[in-house]
């Protein structure tokens, strides 16, 4: 028989090689005669390896092994010899990039006709969808110009007419462009070549040519491939070999399979070949999994045939295991352990088969833990390679007008050096981050950033010296010289794209005229972007080309960008904002092998990672089917952007469910042929619950009905033991650092004393570990900014009108608040929100001042924002300084002192002040008593009032809280008591065994616990709460 099948439980390519060798009677010369046509290049390479395995080391000339997609004039010999009269005069195929560029231009023109104004990054994906539609139609033999109008649905006639008008791109405009340029679609040309190949082989058959021609491994195929297979069957020595045809399924069921069934493609193929299954020869062989394949075939029967489950039969799946992981990471680690364990056996191959590229990348990374570099044959998207990521980051940076986040994303990219060594570039970038980019964002634009840097150089110098003196030298070089040189070098690197800066604004706020005015030819935009990146990646020792374009990734990226620059000459000018989206659309579909830092020569020959296409016709001793979840494997069914399923059916296009059927066949073939199979799925994917693949659900149901089950693989047990500590887990204890007294701070501010009481660990982290809390990048204005505005305005008010009361006091204070507000860089909406609140504060302050003066008279003096210091000379560890800055100190008419503090947030209660939890004002009073504020006269040191002003500007714009005396204790007594407590604390912490505890008083934690994560408070605090309960 000329039509054969290799059972699913046998390794297809090994059996094919064995049968070819046997058909040549093991004659070395005869083995090399003939042609074997396979579906893809990966299968062709794998068949070559299979021949080598079965030739026992003999030297042999192999037959010509040809992927069907590689058939062209050179392979076919159509231009000379016996096929000369059949030679084709075909126009060349249009280059893929050129086709997409021209289609994108047509999309732009068509959308303008519909009244929209898309940009290139929006048009390119539509162009790709149009190209896919044409390819699909040409493989199916569908004339879009004739069949599209027939697909219209009456209920959607108006909507369809709009789509039909848009699709005139592929029915009218594109064919006209092809004729004008003398080229043809790639698939149309491939179809013509396949048909010519079929005609050639038929002619050879008629002339009695007995050259063996085998076509193997095809499942559901398009009509042009069917013609090739029919021609092979007509050849005297021709054979068609099918993979895993189910010969036991009922004929009625086989002929009516839904497209989502794994045998649906083979069923359709036999129909097209006009051959029934009883004409198919079974090539038997030696294998272990015949029973497993039979069970899987019953499990996957269509719904109409499920009554077969009621019949008795085997239910033991030998060497099949389940891996039910909690999430993708656990799944990846477990799979890597299985693969590492498998290669302990000599000559044992292990393969992961998965369409989930994220899972494949995770497994490859985890295998590196075991020193194994896996061959991920499906590769990664070109857009995710380091060089492509850098190109997109630079485009995003210019689009965002050099925002801190986008700028640092570029500067911290591993390839960026700006002409320095990588270490100097990285250290200076971190310095720029800390000195300039942390906190509120600088004004937009590179020029504005340079101005901010220049203004900060003097302050930076002082801070850098202080850090160097404190021993922080990890980020050398410090200082304005290094930073100024760095900014000059950065300006040189960015020079090609700095001209775009004015254009890089949101398209949503631009008019059509603005967009047209600030556009440039796409090749020029790409050239400027590439030139910028090349300048950024060059080091002081290596050129850009050595770093950016090397290796397989760099070569492919350079090739794609070159093709894009040439093809984009046909495109209209575009704004620079399109580059990020354009590069994503162009580079994302391309796949490239990423070795993740490993040497390709170090790839482990027996550890394989395959995508579904790469896995077809291949197997290994151990096969892991990973990512078996709905939406991953099988994939989500998508009818495409242009038409519904019924419309596709009326046009004669393949149904979307065929993709599910092919995925099901991949599952069946991989699970049936290997010696050991692990079926792996995760319960959560990207944090969301997922449903196991329908085939796993069916398998569980089938086995449950026979009191069977699939045992779990022990990999999850291995995983739990892998990182398990030697002893039992113990809750972490609160930190108790006890540094030497010589390292403990000898100077604290009055505001830090409250922190010292509530959270001593924060003092330890800040002053001993010297860990500073970094502001957020692009930090939004918050309550601290509001407080600074209020304090600055009141400081100016008191200094201008301390005793003398001005006319129009409210207006003058409002003007000061307005000026202070304008000095801060704020969002317009926030400025508009704060302005009326500040006006209400001004009104309240004026009223409060007038009330106090009317009740207590005009003060003798008002001091504001003055600094003070008191030294504790007899502290056990040596002199200890208390410093402070008072918001306001008022000397009233009788010579007593009023100490006042402004708050824009929460006020401390009088109870907390007397209890010592909020000691700021009492400590300032104690410093006044001890002459710590030189501006306060010595004879005026009796404390009469401690006052808080809470200034919010809300419905109640202000509130005055006075700390009152208690029984026989005056406020002076409170100040002295607070000072005595401070002396005791200083003495206690001058003892080497006094620890700096974190949050030692439950319920009295500081409002802003900046070092709570460093102290691991959430961990031990939860244990403390459990103990209390």
TrEMBL record:
Residues 747-993 form the PD-(D/E)XK endonuclease-like domain. It comes from the Bacteria. InterPro entries: Ds_break_AddB (IPR014153), P-loop_NTPase (IPR027417), PDDEXK_AddAB-type (IPR038726). NCBIfam families: addB_alphas. This is PD-(D/E)XK endonuclease-like domain-containing protein. The lineage of its organism: Bacteria, Pseudomonadati, Pseudomonadota, Alphaproteobacteria, Acetobacterales.
């Amino acid at each position: 028989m000329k039509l054969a099948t290799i059972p699913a439980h046998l390794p297809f390519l090994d059996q094919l090689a064995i049968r070819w060798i046997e058909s040549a009677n093991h004659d070395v010369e005869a083995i090399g005669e003939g042609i074997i046509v396979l579906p893809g290049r990966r299968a062709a390479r794998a068949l070559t390896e299979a021949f080598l395995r079965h030739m026992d080391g003999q030297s042999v000339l192999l037959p010509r092994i040809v992927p069907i997609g590689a058939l062209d004039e050179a392979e076919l010999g159509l231009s000379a010899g016996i096929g000369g009269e059949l030679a084709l005069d075909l126009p060349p195929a249009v280059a893929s990039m050129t086709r997409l560029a021209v289609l994108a231009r047509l999309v732009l023109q068509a959308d303008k006709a519909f009244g929209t104004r898309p940009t290139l990054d929006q048009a390119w994906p539509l162009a790709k969808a149009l190209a896919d539609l044409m390819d699909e139609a040409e493989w199916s033999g569908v004339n879009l110009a004739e069949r599209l109008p027939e697909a219209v649905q009456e209920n959607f006639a108006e909507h369809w007419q709009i789509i039909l008008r848009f699709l005139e791109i592929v029915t009218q405009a594109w064919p006209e462009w092809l004729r004008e340029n003398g080229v043809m679609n790639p698939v149309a040309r491939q179809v013509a070549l396949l048909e010519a190949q079929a005609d050639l082989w038929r002619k050879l058959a008629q002339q009695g040519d007995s050259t063996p021609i085998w076509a193997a491994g095809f499942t559901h195929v398009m009509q042009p491939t069917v013609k090739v297979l029919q021609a092979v069957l007509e050849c005297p020595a021709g054979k068609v070999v099918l993979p895993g045809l189910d010969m036991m399924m009922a004929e009625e069921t086989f002929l009516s399979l839904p497209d989502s069934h794994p045998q649906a493609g083979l069923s359709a193929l036999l129909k097209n070949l006009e051959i029934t299954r009883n004409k198919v020869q079974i090539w038997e062989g030696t294998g272990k999994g015949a029973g497993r394949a039979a069970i899987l075939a019953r499990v996957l029967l269509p719904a109409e045939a499920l009554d077969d489950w009621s019949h008795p039969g085997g239910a033991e799946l030998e060497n099949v295991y389940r891996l039910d992981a909690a999430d993708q990471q656990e799944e990846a680690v477990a799979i890597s352990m299985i693969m590492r364990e498998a290669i302990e056996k000599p000559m044992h191959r292990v393969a992961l088969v998965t369409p989930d590229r994220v899972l494949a990348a995770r497994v490859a990374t985890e295998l590196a833990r075991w020193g194994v570099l896996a061959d991920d044959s499906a590769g990664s998207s070109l857009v995710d390679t380091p060089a492509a990521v850098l190109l997109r980051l630079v485009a995003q940076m210019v689009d965002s007008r050099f925002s801190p986040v986008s700028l640092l994303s570029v500067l911290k990219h591993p390839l960026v050096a700006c002409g320095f060594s990588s270490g100097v570039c990285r250290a200076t970038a971190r310095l720029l981050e800390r000195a300039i980019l942390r906190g509120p964002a600088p004004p937009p634009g590179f020029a504005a950033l340079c101005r901010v840097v220049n203004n900060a150089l003097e302050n930076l110098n002082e801070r850098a010296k202080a850090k160097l003196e404190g021993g922080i030298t990890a980020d050398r070089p410090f200082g304005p010289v290094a930073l100024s040189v760095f900014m000059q070098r950065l300006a040189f690197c960015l020079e090609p794209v700095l001209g775009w800066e004015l254009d890089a604004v949101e398209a949503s706020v631009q008019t059509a005229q603005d967009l047209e005015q600030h556009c440039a030819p796409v090749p020029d935009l790409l050239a400027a972007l590439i030139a910028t990146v090349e300048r950024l990646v060059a080091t002081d020792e290596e050129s850009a080309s050595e770093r950016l374009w090397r290796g397989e990734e760099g070569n492919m990226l350079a090739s794609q960008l070159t093709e894009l620059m040439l093809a984009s000459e046909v495109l209209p000018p575009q704004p620079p904002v399109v580059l990020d989206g354009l590069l994503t659309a162009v580079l994302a579909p391309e796949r490239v092998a990423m070795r993740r830092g490993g040497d390709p020569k170090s790839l482990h020959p027996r550890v394989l990672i395959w995508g579904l296409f790469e896995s077809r016709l291949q197997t290994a001793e151990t096969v892991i089917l990973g990512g078996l979840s709905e939406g991953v494997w099988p994939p989500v069914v998508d009818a495409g952007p242009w038409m519904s399923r019924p419309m596709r059916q009326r046009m004669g296009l393949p149904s979307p469910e065929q993709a599910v059927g092919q995925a099901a066949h991949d599952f069946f073939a991989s699970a049936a042929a290997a010696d050991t199979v692990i079926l792996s799925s995760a319960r959560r994917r990207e944090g969301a619950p997922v449903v196991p693949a329908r085939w796993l659900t069916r398998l569980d149901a089938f086995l449950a009905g026979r009191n069977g089950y699939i045992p779990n693989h022990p990999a999850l047990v291995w995983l739990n033991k892998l990182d398990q500590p030697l002893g039992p887990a113990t809750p972490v204890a609160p930190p108790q650092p006890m540094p030497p007294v010589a390292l403990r701070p000898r100077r604290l501010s009055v505001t830090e004393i409250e922190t010292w009481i509530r959270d001593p660990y924060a003092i330890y982290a800040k002053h001993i570990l010297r860990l500073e809390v970094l502001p957020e990048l692009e930090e939004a204005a918050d309550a601290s900014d509001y407080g600074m505005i209020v304090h600055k305005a009141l400081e100016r008010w008191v200094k201008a009108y301390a005793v003398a009361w001005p006319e129009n006091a409210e207006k003058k204070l409002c003007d000061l608040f307005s000026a202070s507000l304008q000095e801060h860089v704020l969002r317009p909406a926030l400025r508009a929100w704060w302005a009326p609140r500040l006006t209400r504060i001004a009104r309240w302050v004026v009223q409060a001042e007038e009330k106090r003066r009317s009740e207590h008279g005009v003060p003798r003096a008002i001091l504001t924002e003055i600094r003070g210091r008191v030294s504790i000379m007899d502290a056990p560890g040596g002199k200890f300084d208390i410093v402070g800055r008072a918001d306001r100190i008022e000397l009233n008419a009788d010579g007593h002192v009023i100490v006042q503090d402004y708050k824009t947030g929460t006020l401390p209660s009088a109870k907390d002040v007397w209890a010592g939890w909020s000691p700021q004002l009492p400590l300032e009073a104690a410093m006044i008593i001890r002459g710590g504020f030189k501006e306060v006269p010595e004879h005026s040191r009796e404390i009469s009032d401690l006052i808080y002003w809470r200034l919010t500007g809300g419905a109640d714009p202000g509130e005055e809280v006075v700390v009152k005396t208690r029984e026989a204790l005056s406020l002076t007594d409170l100040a002295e008591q607070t000072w005595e407590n401070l002396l005791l604390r200083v003495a206690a912490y001058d003892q080497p065994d006094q620890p700096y505890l974190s949050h030692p008083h439950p319920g009295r934690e500081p409002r802003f616990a900046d070092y709570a994560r460093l102290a691991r408070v959430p961990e031990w605090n939860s244990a403390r709460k459990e103990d209390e309960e």
